[in-house]
Write a structure and sequence with these properties.
It is elongated and about 75 Å long. Helix 10 packs parallel to helix 14, helix 11 runs parallel beside helix 15 and helix 12 packs across helix 14. The protein folds into two domains: 128 residues, no CATH class; 277 residues, no CATH class. The protein has 17 helices and no strands. 78% of the residues lie in helices and 0% in strands. By secondary structure, the chain is mostly helical.
Length: 422
């Protein structure tokens, strides 16, 4: 009795998976006015057939599942060839491939992998319905973006595994494998931000451009919107908002990097990050209230692809140098040297100092000192963004930008004494 209930339950789940995929195909065909070879009911049968074939494989013959798949593949192939010959046009195979996948998902349910089958069924339905979006994405991809993706794959899956995992140099500060892991981590975060910006940012308004652009490079956002205020002073407040938003994204980057490298630091680090983040969001909303109608970004935001081999090598070198300085400061001048290195490093970027300090926590200095150094770097970077914005921008950007980032700076600075007593 229990086996029969399990079989019926398995068949029911498989049928629902087929219905989900079939519903998407049926809707898409009707929307386009096309006549598809398989719709809602057909996909339900494909999933059910895969499920039954898998159960028969368990109870009768191991050949039942391969035979069932071969039969479905033959049917799908014949239908595809017949449709191509009748239409005399090139046609895709998306629905046909989805049919074969649906059969296998039905079999996967019978194998007891229900969660995986349901998850893959949802993914298949999403991919099928995402064709217009995917096509728009492809239209925005440049040759440089394609090569960049391939380069990222090379440095991650080819270069990283062959680098020696040993310590070299003074204070044993240089480990090629560990340094390259950090390079891959930062490159990945920046590249994902760049991709998100290209896909969603340029045509969605200043606030979202500042947000997504900040994921790729907050410095580039500060420069670009500072110059934009110079070209169009009427947009000064909106440009100040974009720079503030991009600077606030720095908080999220720090959180992600610390959680990945040294999760235990977050027990203390959340205090200054919360102060920086809340004040950043609040001041961004304040600036947005006064610039709600300034949504267009004529000409787009000037964000270059952050993943170039020269950039990757430069960050690797910068990280190695900062790591050495932090390690030396932690050994010889832990109280004064580390904050000084953090302040100087933060003027250009917070990634290298954040990774360096997080990596050495527990060996070179305490968690409190590490969090203090990260906060100092973040405050230094906030000052840097303000200076960049007002130096290249119109004079009308100075007051809103300095007010917003000044509040963020003071909010973070107020948490500095708390860190050492937490």
């Amino acid at each position: 009795m229990t086996d029969q209930i399990d079989i019926l339950r398995s068949m029911g789940i498989a049928t629902l998976i087929g219905a989900l995929i079939g519903l998407e195909r049926e809707y898409t065909h009707q929307l386009k006015g096309e006549k598809g070879f398989a719709g809602l009911r057909t996909f339900m049968f494909y999933a059910l057939l895969g499920n039954i074939s898998a159960w028969l494989t368990k109870t009768t013959s191991p050949a039942m599942l391969p035979l069932g798949f071969a039969a479905v593949a033959l049917l799908v192939g014949v239908t595809y060839l017949r449709g191509s010959m009748m239409e005399w046009t090139d046609r895709g195979m998306t629905t046909e491939v989805a049919a074969l996948v649906t059969f296998l998902l039905g079999a996967l349910v019978a194998a007891g992998r229900v969660e995986a089958a349901v998850a893959f069924g949802v993914i298949v339905a999403v991919l099928l319905s995402a064709k217009p979006t995917l096509l728009r994405w492809v239209e925005r991809i440049t040759t440089e973006d394609l090569y960049t993706t391939l380069k990222f794959a090379v440095i991650t899956f080819v270069v990283l595994p062959i680098l020696p995992n040993r310590h070299y140099g003074p204070l044993d500060a240089f480990n090629p494998h560990e340094i390259w892991i950090m390079v891959v981590l930062i490159s990945g975060v920046s590249f994902l931000g760049y991709v998100a910006y290209k896909l969603y940012g340029p045509e969605r308004g200043i606030a979202l451009s500042g947000l997504l652009g900040g994921l790729a490079s907050s410095t580039a956002v500060s420069l670009s919107f500072g110059r934009r205020s110079k070209d169009n002073p009427a947009l000064a407040k909106s440009c100040a908002m974009a720079i503030t938003v991009a600077s606030t994204v720095m908080v999220a980057r720090i959180a992600v990097l610390v959680v990945v490298v040294q999760p235990s630091l977050f027990r203390i680090l959340w205090i200054p990050l919360a102060a920086l983040g809340v004040s950043g969001v609040a001041t961004s909303l304040w600036l947005w209230q006064g610039s709600r109608h300034d949504t267009a970004i004529e000409g787009g935001l000037e964000i270059a692809n952050p993943f170039r081999l020269s950039t990757v090598i430069a960050f690797g070198a910068a990280f190695a140098i900062v790591l050495f300085l932090v390690k030396a400061a932690g050994k010889f001048l832990p109280v004064t040297g580390t904050p000084m290195v953090a302040a100087i490093s933060g003027l250009t970027q917070v990634d290298a100092i954040t990774l360096s300090v997080a990596k050495l926590t527990g060996t070179t200095f305490s968690a409190n000192l590490a969090v203090g150094a990260i906060l100092i770097a973040a405050l230094s970077n906030t000052v840097s963004k303000a200076l960049i914005g007002i130096s290249v921008g119109d004079r009308k950007i100075r007051r809103p930008l300095l007010t917003a980032l000044g509040i963020v700076f003071l909010s973070g600075l107020a948490t500095l004494p708390i860190i050492y007593f937490f």
